[in-house]
Amino acid sequence: MQFRLTTDRQARSFSASSTLTAPSNEPFKTHLPVKHSEPTVHSFYHKSTSTFSYVVAGSPYDAESGVLDVVIIDSVLDYDAASGSVTTESADGLMSFCAAQNYRVTAVLETHAHADHLSAGFYISRSLHVGHLNRVANPPLIIGKGIEEVQRRFAPRYGLTQGDLQGSFDLLIDEKMNLRVGNSRINAIHLPGHTPDHMGYQIGENIFTGDVVFLPDVGSARADFPGGSADLLRASIHRLLDASPQTRLYVGHDYPPPSRADPKCFSTISETQHENVHLKNMDDFVQRRLIRDKELAAPRLLHPSLQVNIRGGRLPPPGPDGVSRMQIPLTAGSANLL
């Protein structure tokens, strides 16, 4: 398959006077802080991949400019597998939203190398420049240090060299790193099990959990990817549940069951602990998770996502004709097919 990335708005200015593009990945909602010192969270639902992205606004405002610092978590490129089209409409919508709110993006965070959607992290971090409203030169693209293990596992499968991986991320973090958004501290929490690189980000009484747990009526993440572990996932969930009962867990995806019409993006620790369908008996969680994972099909966008996301959201290197092509490893059931 061959495709080209549509980047007609890549050099656009995000000044307050610009013509703004409405976010295409609606519905989005604003979740106001319970306490004055807490951040404001804007959630965006990317319907085609059931993915939540977040714009998290710290506190307080910059007294001189009136600008509020924000981070963007788990952004998405728009990818149509049938046509090979990759566009930036949803990512442009996030940036336009930030411009309309007088927000300054200070960092672009990834919870992990996603296997079900293409990240827009690299595109967003390189599309915001000094001189625009943002006033931060290419806010850093950040992911957990475990991404190096994920890259080692998957780069050879997609014909990617060490050189192809250089510059994919600006900062690899562990729990010792001190990050901030405005005056709010961001605590990085290593949450392996779904993937080795998985990080959660706690900002006040909000934890952005990626794919560790989902809404109570959906359950928990799978643990059967290379480098995954149901035992480690169980330990990571226990670690999350140690937070205060009112802490909100903002999830990476929602797959609403028939009993619930609309997607939701968070549940509290208390609700998760007492109502999550996969956590009601943690004693046999690992065994039930292993059985469940054997029944699951591979994610629809597994191969496109991984080869793009281990490079921070960059497309595969172009061939001699300037066209990027996805590599799809095949499993042949007979030597006669090779």
UniProtKB/TrEMBL annotation:
Residue ranges, compositional bias (Polar residues): 12-24
Region of interest (Disordered), residue spans: 1-28, 309-338
Domain of life: Eukaryota
Domain Metallo-beta-lactamase span(s) in chain numbering: 50-253
Pfam families in alphabetical order: Lactamase_B
PANTHER family with a match to the protein in the record: PERSULFIDE DIOXYGENASE ETHE1, PERSULFIDE DIOXYGENASE ETHE1, MITOCHONDRIAL
Annotated protein name in UniProt: Metallo-hydrolase/oxidoreductase
Organism expressing this protein natively: Meira miltonrushii
Lineage, uppermost ranks: Eukaryota, Fungi, Dikarya, Basidiomycota, Ustilaginomycotina
